[in-house]
Recover the amino acids of this structure.
C-alpha cells in the first residue's frame, strides 16, 4: 500500500498495490503493521456500505462526537464519488479546513479519515457503492453533522444536481460548542 499524506493533518489517501496476472489482480486494503508504520492507530470494529442509485446523491457531513469519535476508511467499490472531509479538531493546525477527493471504482483509492473529522460525499455516477470500515461502533446519541453548504467551510461541490435527505439538509450551521 502506498500512503499519501493529505493537506489535512492525519488524513491519508491510500493506493493499494496490485499484484496482477492473467486472472486479474490481488491487493491488500488494510494491514495493521503498514498503518502503524505511518503512525496510524486504526482498529476496525464495524463495516458499513451505502448503495446510491443516482448521480448527485449527497450524504453528509457526518461525524460522531466524543467519547465515540470514529476514524474511517472509505472506499468507493463501484461507480465514483466526490468525498469531502472537514477537520473539526479545535487544536489541529488544519481546524475547519476541508479536503475533497475523487474515490472511484477505477482509481481504487481509499481515504483514511482520523477521529474528529466530518465526512460526506456526492455521487458522480449512478449505481455507486461505498464501503466503510469504522474504528467505533455506531452510537446514535453521539451521531452529529454539519450542513453540506455551511458558509463556515465554503465546500465546492461538483454539481448542482443533488438529492439530500431531510436529516442532512437540517444539520445546523457549525458551532464550536457542538463539536
Amino acid at each position: 500500500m502506498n500512503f499519501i499524506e493529505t493537506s489535512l493533518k492525519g488524513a491519508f489517501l491510500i493506493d493499494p498495490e496490485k499484484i496482477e496476472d492473467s486472472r486479474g489482480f490481488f491487493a491488500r486494503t488494510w494491514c495493521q503493521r503498514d498503518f502503524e508504520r505511518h503512525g496510524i492507530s486504526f482498529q476496525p470494529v464495524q463495516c458499513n456500505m451505502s448503495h446510491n442509485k443516482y448521480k448527485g446523491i449527497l450524504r453528509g457531513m457526518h461525524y460522531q462526537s466524543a467519547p465515540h469519535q470514529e476514524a474511517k476508511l472509505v472506499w468507493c467499490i463501484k461507480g465514483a464519488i466526490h468525498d469531502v472531509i472537514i477537520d473539526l479538531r479545535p487544536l489541529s493546525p488544519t481546524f475547519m479546513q476541508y479536503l475533497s477527493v475523487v474515490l472511484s471504482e477505477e482509481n481504487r483509492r481509499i481515504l483514511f479519515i482520523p477521529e474528529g473529522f466530518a465526512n460526506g460525499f456526492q455521487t458522480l455516477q449512478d449505481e455507486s457503492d461505498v464501503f466503510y470500515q469504522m474504528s467505533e461502533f455506531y452510537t446514535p446519541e453521539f451521531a452529529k453533522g454539519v450542513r453540506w453548504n455551511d458558509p463556515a467551510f465554503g465546500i465546492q461541490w461538483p454539481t448542482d444536481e443533488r438529492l439530500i435527505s431531510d436529516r442532512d439538509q437540517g444539520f445546523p450551521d457549525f458551532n464550536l460548542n457542538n463539536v
Observations:
- The first helix runs from residue 32 to 37.
- The domain at 2-17+26-171 is CATH 2.60.120.10 (Jelly Rolls).
